[in-house]
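Duplicate of #3305? Posting structure anyway:
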């Protein structure tokens, strides 16, 4: 349970960092593929070949160089390729057994697009996490402190991570205008029901807009912060 609480302490930050790391790896792979392709095509010769054999792991292409037939594996495969299909390939002038197709550049493009998307998503999640934490800190420093009562624990279906939904504490308190208002804590990625040390929490609200608030869980879940 302690490990689980640590990992899911701030799921947006955790997932954001993971996405950013994977995105950086994909982008790095893209640069590697682009560099490798540019090196290959700078000394490559174009020719026409025929798909001669397809195995579970490899596709082989037959082609001729100065009247000599060669068969070499192609490091790129799609499910549209069939035995007997003609195919345009490029072979290295200094090593005719090394062949590629322009379609292999599609792999680099896919890696690049996926990497950029994951990097962007991870960055957005990390920024969101930082902003939420900063907003909560600002409200604790400048907002109005109210004493709230926990009236229930619920699952928040609006947020999901790995098919899991976080828990939230539902609270209520009477604001200075005399109204009894409902408030909801941030996401808790473990069931806090049996871990609550108190039924009361501190709620910090914006003095000009009670819709902006922060439910401080440090009193009822000391390891949350």
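Output from current build:
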């Amino acid at each position: 349970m302690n490990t689980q609480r640590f990992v899911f302490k701030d799921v947006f930050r955790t997932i954001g960092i993971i996405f950013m790391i994977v995105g950086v790896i994909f982008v790095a792979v893209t640069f590697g593929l682009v560099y490798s392709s540019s090196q290959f095509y700078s000394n490559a010769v174009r020719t026409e070949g025929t798909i001669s054999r397809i195995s579970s792991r490899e596709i082989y292409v037959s082609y001729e160089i100065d009247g000599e037939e060669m068969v070499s594996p192609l490091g790129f495969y799609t499910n549209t390729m069939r035995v007997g299909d003609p195919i345009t390939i490029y072979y290295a002038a200094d090593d005719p057994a090394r062949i590629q197709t322009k379609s292999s550049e599609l792999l680099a493009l896919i890696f690049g697009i996926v990497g950029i998307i994951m990097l962007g998503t991870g960055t957005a999640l990390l920024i969101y996490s930082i902003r939420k934490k900063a907003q909560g800190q600002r409200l604790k420093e400048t907002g109005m402190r109210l004493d709230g009562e926990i009236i229930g624990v619920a699952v928040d279906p609006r947020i999901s991570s790995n098919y899991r939904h976080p828990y939230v504490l539902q609270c209520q308190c009477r604001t200075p205008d005399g109204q009894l208002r409902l408030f909801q804590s941030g996401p808790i990625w473990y069931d806090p029901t049996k871990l609550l040390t108190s039924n009361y929490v501190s709620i910090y609200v914006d003095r000009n807009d009670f819709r902006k608030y922060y439910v401080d869980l440090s009193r009822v879940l000391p390891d949350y912060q």
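Confirmed duplicate; merging threads. Helices lie at 2-7, 11-41, 104-142. The CA atoms of residues 55 and 118 lie 33 Å apart.
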